[in-house]
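Study this protein:
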Amino acid sequence: MTENVENINDINDKLDINTNEAPDVTEGVTDNAETSELQKLEGELMDSKDKYLRLAAEFDNFRKRTAKERLELFQTAGKDVIIDLLEVMDDSDRALAQLEKLDDADKALKEGIVLIVSKLKTILQSKGLKEMEALGTEFDPELHDAIAEIPAPDKKLKGKIVDVVTKGYYLNDKIIRHAKVVVGK
């Protein structure tokens, strides 16, 4: 019986040795699972970085766009008022032209009106208003509205503006009113 116990102990010892020497099958499975999990996490990290970079770029573009819009808003804040005053400017120019034709006009009255119109023009120019030069230039449909076409009095004026009916204006280099012109053909 002692022999049997010794045999059993020998067998157990051999089994212990064999289990220690045998490769761990679960270790390979764990490594594959860890590698798979690591790759998954790296993929998620790359996606998160990509989303972050896109979001940062989108925010930067938004910031630039709003700054540009704000600047344009400040530059053209009084645009509607200035456009309404253009009619007053046109009427003032017509009144001055009529005063020039009158010989018996009171000199002081004439000078007073010229001074008022000049002051109005100076104020509007300080706000960014600029008169469009059109007479004698090439007709440009981006800048001018042709209201009539007449035979050119000179060959040099063919395709050019021969008369300006209503002046055009820029406000901070943006067209706020097209010039109404007569073009020579």
Remarks:
- Residues 35 and 41 are 10 Å apart (CA to CA).
- The mean pLDDT is 83.
